[in-house]
Write a structure and sequence with these properties.
About 20% of the residues lie in helices and about 25% in strands. It has about 475 residues and is an alpha/beta fold. The chain is built from 9 helices and 23 strands. A hairpin with a 2-residue loop joins strand 12 and strand 13. The protein is globular and about 75 Å long. Helix 2 crosses helix 4, helix 2 runs parallel beside helix 7 and helix 3 runs parallel beside helix 5. The strands form 5 sheets. Strands 3, 4, 14, 15, 16, 17, 18, 19, 20, 21 and 22 form an 11-stranded mixed beta sheet that branches. A 5-stranded antiparallel beta sheet has the order 7-8-9-10-11. A 3-stranded antiparallel beta sheet has the order 1-2-23, with helices on one face. The two termini are about 20 Å apart.
């Protein structure tokens, strides 16, 4: 919920802390009356007491991020495919060794006990039959070295307290591992955060490159340890080409840009833990040990507040160029062979040729002129947020096979009918006038799943009108006017 009110002479808009409970109560009434879950609605109330309330399902909703406006969800079941699903599968054998893992784990426990002055209490082990049953229930095979650890202890939790043995994470009991996998099965392909966040989202590659699939989530990832903060360690049983089954990755709440590679196996991770203890790289807190790793720079993002530097890291995967006066030369970026996101924010370039040879998937650019020729046939481009200083011909975009999202609300496009020739376009953001032109010509992209209406002064009613023209039934929208 967003909102506020403006007082003449005040420095900023005020919030709605006292009214908020009443608004929630009103939304509850509307939801129960119409059967809408959740409810999307907008209320405009003037100082005179006059108000206008418009409510509908969340198929139409306000966007508070880049550019604002409203979004219309035409196909609520559609989800953008993850790039990792197209990656070549790994064929290498597992790196883990169950006997070595068991030996290292026992050595790890002994070393911790020596530091703490006492052995740590752990749950009793599980049986082989229990492991087999767990694999049957989740439909996946656990790596042999993880199975070996469960034959020593059933996780590291006693009651509600974990010992945080594995990478400072709580090691889940076998039953919790199964519950975690089955409870989140519906999200494991990818958590969906809505079109306003997803249409130009990028999943970065991890380091080493090509080891973990570029996915936000995957059914081959089995979470076995928790940070108790929405983040997890998982064993990856469906790695990318250069990975190994059973490799350990970090995933979860703080990994929206992609998973992080941790180790090639549980066996190797335990060796790392032993080395950290031997080096004294830990903190002791009463009866608890916290491992201390050196900070890692994965080289995935760099925010540049000025011109692009002459020396660009070849591992760079994302660049944000902010508030640059004059024309930005993109040619220094050609050495970044893994660049996935290129955003020019309040900055302008005149030549997109350097982008042609880069695997850029998300491109936000203000273009001095309108030459999109360098993007013709671009095999990676998935989303384009375009601003122009001159009329632009969209024809080159017809040959970009993976283009699924376009924001043209800042662009001068004389011929919008070209959009009808983009069969894979799923998301489109236009101004009210641009939408009117496109609809009047009957040239809406055939596979469109979400539409965005941008521009100052557009209202919920305008968005509902657009939804109706896009064949979304809106006759049951609720409109109330009156005076308080």
């Amino acid at each position: 919920m967003t909102g506020g009110y403006t007082v003449p002479g005040a420095r900023a808009a005020m919030g709605l802390p006292e009214i908020h409970p009443l608004l929630m109560e009103l939304a509850e009434v509307i939801r129960n009356d119409r059967g809408w879950e959740p409810v999307s609605w907008e209320m405009d109330c003037r100082p005179s007491g006059e108000y206008r309330l418009v409510t509908f399902t969340d198929a139409v909703g306000r966007v508070t991020g880049q550019g604002g406006g409203y979004e219309v969800d035409l196909d609520p079941d559609y989800r953008l495919p993850q790039p990792g699903l197209r990656q070549e599968a790994g064929t290498a054998a597992p790196a883990g060794d169950p006997e070595l893992a068991a030996m290292r784990f026992r050595s790890y426990l002994e070393r911790r006990a020596a530091i703490l002055g006492q052995a740590e209490e752990l749950p009793p082990p599980v049986t082989v039959a229990a492991l087999d049953d767990a694999e049957r229930r989740i439909g996946r095979t656990l790596p042999a070295d993880l199975r070996a650890l469960y034959l020593i202890a059933d996780g590291d939790g006693i009651g509600y307290r974990h010992r945080y043995l594995i990478e400072n994470n709580g090691w889940l009991s076998l039953e919790s591992l199964v519950a975690e996998y089955t409870d989140w099965r519906e999200w494991q392909d990818r958590p969906w955060f809505g079109w306003d966040l997803e249409w130009d989202a990028v999943v970065f590659d991890t380091t080493p490159a090509g080891t973990v699939r570029r996915c936000g989530g995957h059914p081959g990832w089995i979470r076995f340890a928790t940070g108790e903060d929405g983040n997890y360690l998982a064993v990856d049983m469906d790695p990318a080409r250069d990975g190994r089954p059973g490799q350990v990755i970090a995933t979860g709440r703080d990994y929206d840009d992609g998973p992080v590679y941790v180790a090639d196996s549980i066996t190797s991770l335990l060796q790392q833990h032993l080395e950290l203890l031997e080096q004294g790289s830990y903190e002791k807190y009463d009866d608890h040990i916290s491992l201390r790793r050196p900070a890692c720079d994965f080289g995935t993002q760099q925010i540049i507040g000025g011109p692009i530097p002459d020396e660009v890291p070849p591992t760079l995967q994302a660049v944000h160029i902010n508030d640059v006066t004059g024309i930005v030369d993109l040619s220094p970026l050609t050495v970044a062979s893994g660049l996935r996101r290129l955003h020019l924010n309040r900055s302008t370039t005149a030549d997109l040729t350097p982008v042609r040879g880069l695997p850029v998937e998300s491109l936000r650019v203000a273009l001095d002129g309108g030459d999109l020729t360098p993007l013709a046939g671009h095999p990676h481009l998935a989303s384009l947020d375009l601003g122009t200083t001159a009329p632009a011909d969209l024809t080159p975009l017809r040959t970009a096979p993976n283009l699924h999202g376009l924001d043209l609300s800042r662009a001068d496009v004389p011929d919008l009918t070209v959009l009808a020739g983009l069969p894979n376009l799923r998301y489109l953001a236009l101004t009210q006038q641009q939408w009117a032109t496109l609809l009047d010509h009957g040239k809406v992209p055939p596979a469109l799943a979400a539409a965005r209406l941008t521009g100052d002064g557009v209202t919920f009613d305008d968005a509902l009108a657009l939804a109706s023209r896009l064949c979304l039934e809106t006759n049951d929208a609720l409109r109330v006017v009156g005076s308080l």
